[in-house]
Predict the 3D structure of the following.
Amino acid sequence: MYSRFLQCLAITGLILFLLGGCNSRAEDPRVAFENKQYELAHELWLPMAEAGDAEAQNAIGTIYYLGLGVRRDDRRALKWFESAARQGHPGAQRNTGMMYQDGRGTGQDFLTAYMWFYAADKQGNKGADAYINNLVNKLTPNQQMKARRTAAQFIINPTDDFVPEREIPKANPRIENHRESG
């Protein structure tokens, strides 16, 4: 009888331990986010984002952009998206482009939006190409070329179709001097 009591006590302890584990806070911010525990996800991602983790920065940007568990804040969203975008995160590059295109958290800037969309596209982001196509008629060919050149510094893992823009050679100084004097 005493051993049966010990068995029941052990089983009860095991059940309580397992249930306690189910109720404990998740340590993975992705799990918290998927479980719609947005405040917890923010709390877990924030130190990672502050330490420079691009994935966490993009996630924090998304939380602020959508107002999930925090007050919606386009400026903070842009700050985090752009931090990750500068590190070459393709999703954050597309998100940053959207912010500039729509003027959310910043003034509307089609040139900067195009640059971020181009960087995202050349790293394989599936949605970026459609955004580029929407901006083509809003920029001159020279502006597009300038944006592509600027974007090249943020393309960390290029796709096979990425070909960097060639620099325009500087004019020969003698010719320029000749023009000035002649």
